[in-house]
Specification:
By secondary structure, this protein is of the alpha+beta class. It is about 65% helix and about 15% strand. The chain has eight helices and six strands. The chain has helices at about 20-30, 35-40, 45-50, 65-70, 80-95, 115-175, 180-220, 240-255, and strands spanning about 10-15, 55, 60-65, 95-100, 105-115, 225-230. The strands form two sheets. The chain has a four-stranded antiparallel sheet with strand order 4-5-1-6. Helix 6 (about 115-175) runs antiparallel to helix 7 (about 180-220). The radius of gyration is 30 Å and the shape is elongated.
């Protein structure tokens, strides 16, 4: 019995992660994009969003949610949504959707493989929209958390500076009445402590300003650019593979 593979079509997109996005990753200590994107694609939030999107397929002759296309089709299912989501997610990430790094580290190649060329192109476009939105949301959350953390550090550093000033002021008043080498040494220590506290405060204020600048600029910019948009493939990518299988089967028959 000769098993013929179904024709499969691929639609790919090359995505350029903007230098501004990379700058944020370096400054805010985020995972590299090649690590981040697979994590976003594997997240429950992405799964929930993409599975509810509707796509037209020739197989069903109408639009259906991706969840239905990958599982029970246009017939009702007795399985619960959580089980269907688990099955569909495994199928999507195991067979349909792939992501890899391009020749340059800031370029990612996203590919969707499906039995219909139009569906493959529509699915990858939906994936790109959702993953960019998740990337932006994730980055905004990280920036907000980082800003809040640094704001707390700035507030604490300001208190430290004020306390150092008060200690030096009180000691200076006492020192004016009592002069000794020990008092002089203590004065120098308190003065040095104040300078260090002030410098730390200035550094944190500078970091806070930079983060605020990054956040305001990030809201106006794109985190990624699609440099090669997905297209509808006119030929199945596994066409040559099918021919090879048929040829090998025919040659095997002739050998008997």
């Amino acid at each position: 019995v000769l098993l013929i593979q179904q024709s499969e079509y691929r639609s790919s997109a090359r995505v350029f992660l903007t230098s501004y996005s990379n700058y944020i990753h370096e400054k805010v200590v985020m995972p590299p994009n090649l690590t981040l994107y697979p994590e976003l694609l594997s997240s429950q939030l992405f799964t929930d969003k993409i599975m509810d999107k509707e796509f037209y397929t020739d197989k069903f002759k109408k639009k259906l949610p991706l969840l239905a296309i990958l599982t029970h089709g246009d017939k009702p299912s007795e399985l619960g949504r959580s089980i269907l989501l688990e099955q569909a997610a495994a199928k999507l990430k195991g067979k349909y959707l792939k992501i890899r790094q391009g020749v340059r580290p800031e370029v990612l190649i996203v590919t969707v493989t499906a039995l219909e060329p139009g569906f493959a192109r529509e699915l990858i476009e939906a994936v790109l929209v959702e993953v960019e939105a998740l990337h932006r949301s994730f980055t905004e959350d990280v920036l907000k958390a980082k800003l809040k953390f640094v704001e707390g550090q700035v507030a604490a550093a300001k208190v430290t500076v004020e306390e150092a000033k008060q200690r030096l002021k009180k000691f200076s008043e006492l020192r004016s009445e009592i002069l000794s080498p020990v008092m002089q040494r203590e004065y120098e220590i308190l003065t040095s402590t104040l300078r260090q506290s002030q410098q730390g405060y200035i550094n944190l204020k500078s970091e806070l300003w930079e983060l605020d600048y990054i956040k305001s600029g990030f809201l106006k910019k794109s985190v990624m650019e699609i440099i090669n948009r997905p297209k509808i493939s006119s030929h199945p990518f596994n066409k040559n593979l099918k021919r090879k299988i048929i040829h090998e089967a025919l040659m095997a028959r002739k050998s008997y």
